[in-house]
Amino acid sequence: MPIPKPTTFLLGTPLYAKTAYEGDEVWAVLDVLYFNGTYDSYCAKCRRESTFQAKVVERPAAYQRNLAHERLDKQNGIDPKVPSLEPGLYVVHAHCTRTNSHKQDFVFFVDREVVPDHAPPKVLRTIQKVGQQPSYGDLHITQVKKYTHVLSNEQLSELTRAIGLASHDVGVGAYVYLRRIFETLVEEAHQSAVADPGWDEGAYQRLRMSERIAHLKSHLPNFLSEHPGMYSLLSKGIHELSEDECLKHFETLRIGIELILDERLDQRERAQKISAAKAAIQKALGDAGA
Ligand SMILES: [Zn+2]
Q1: How far is the centre of ligand 1, averaged over its atoms, from the C-alpha of 257 (Å)?
Q2: Is this model's pTM higher than 0.70 or not?
Q3: FRET label pair with 154: which of 216, 257, 282, 290, CA 20 to 30 Å apart?
Q4: What residues pair up with 41 in beta bridges, in sequence order?
């Protein structure tokens, strides 16, 4: 699994989900640990979306990448050197650009350990987020409130519960809730697809979940049907998945759900605009005595 982008790692990844890295993936890890850019997030103090600016921390010289050297090494058939990351805690501090005193902080733990009984000897290097303020739940539960009008109450409370569980490191439980919501959303797309001309229900029933998503492409956001592999795990039984796997894939599933819901919000907004426009036209025509 690739190292998530810094902003995904800061905001999206639940606590304690370990991500292993090796070789030149260390650069992507350093981009997380020394992130100094901006990102958009809900600000709990402004009580609205805002832009946050991460505090700029100078990278130690050993962690600075020299692309020119790397090119030279490659030309000479040498594997470019990669830094060995010091195990320990790393903190990313950020502030709300609307009000400097509104902060967000993220703590990462970098570790390395020798894999037991591995020949040749192998070192497992990992990064995990081990702390943050505001909490993962506070950041995301406020965010999902915007879906109130496009989800049933039951689905909304399941989504909230899933995020709450993930923020307390309960991987399997969180994953089960998200998977249920995701499968319901896919089933709703299936129900509307049944009315399509030439729909072959028997063939659909024989498909695995990831294939169903590809098959429902005109009824689901494009991104989902273009990346059915994102959901290959959905075909696995819950008992086959470890806590860690569930936490790691939680984010993929959450994004998938949000894509579907964002599209529904767009459609709802468009429908509202159309009906407002219709009413305005009616009124204008009435006023004009047409
Ligand atoms: Zn703020």
Answers
A1: 27
A2: no
A3: 216
A4: 50
